[in-house]
């Protein structure tokens, strides 16, 4: 930038994990340009988590409104023009949204990561990166406008009321809380209920209070019920009982979290709680819990080699593997051993 930007628009609509990654970049930008006005175009659910983020104006894009959502964007930004748009999402929905945001400079991804006509909606690109984590991709946008990015930090918008609600929900627990957030967005990415239950029993035997968290969907409710049925230990079931900010506080008050490739894993990272991630379909080096990638238990790489005949380094970065039974390859003992390792390493 030839001069400090006075107005910056962030475009990242979804998902929960990704907007958590983006917060670190946004707050690094705020530290570098404290006088810049920042507007973030974001999805409806994601806005519930980040509402009241200091110094950020949120404009909610509700994808369920269809064409009306784009018309609302145009109305919102009529008569405005940003110095720069950081277009952090390549999905077609986001690309069409970018067309509705007036900005002098529209920065998007490098050619290697561009898809779904992304290139048509930008006039500048971030520099390519070698095997970046999603979070590092967002940091590259900040670097492009002159921001130095080091180890990410987060200051999440939670209140004393949210903290107290979480404390009340955990009232029956001791000061060592092991949270299982078992459900991903797709059933194929979930581990088996009886294996989650076995890890819960192991944690309880080590003196941890075990808590299950999740949303109100039937999939999450059924998985939580199955875990509780299999487990021969006390479990506090909070599935469907927490709003996103209260869930964030529950994760903050936890000692350790176990989760597959799902938003709460990344929420936990933002509040400094160690995460054991379970990965089979996507590369944990790209989408794993950023500060705790050494705590991942994965079968991604062996399945990638089996399906593609090549390693992750030999293929386009971020290639996924397919299969409904891949998560079953993660063995209970592997996760228990990682649990013991993390407890010792983190002195929990």
From TrEMBL:
<keyword id="KW-0808">Transferase</keyword>
<dbReference type="GO" id="GO:0005829">
    <property type="term" value="C:cytosol"/>
</dbReference>
<dbReference type="GO" id="GO:0008713">
    <property type="term" value="F:ADP-heptose-lipopolysaccharide heptosyltransferase activity"/>
</dbReference>
<dbReference type="GO" id="GO:0009244">
    <property type="term" value="P:lipopolysaccharide core region biosynthetic process"/>
</dbReference>
<dbReference type="InterPro" id="IPR002201">
    <property type="entry name" value="Glyco_trans_9"/>
</dbReference>
<protein>
    <submittedName>
        <fullName>ADP-heptose--LPS heptosyltransferase I</fullName>
    </submittedName>
</protein>
<dbReference type="InterPro" id="IPR051199">
    <property type="entry name" value="LPS_LOS_Heptosyltrfase"/>
</dbReference>
<dbReference type="Pfam" id="PF01075">
    <property type="entry name" value="Glyco_transf_9"/>
</dbReference>
<comment type="similarity">
    <text>Belongs to the glycosyltransferase 9 family.</text>
</comment>
<keyword id="KW-0328">Glycosyltransferase</keyword>
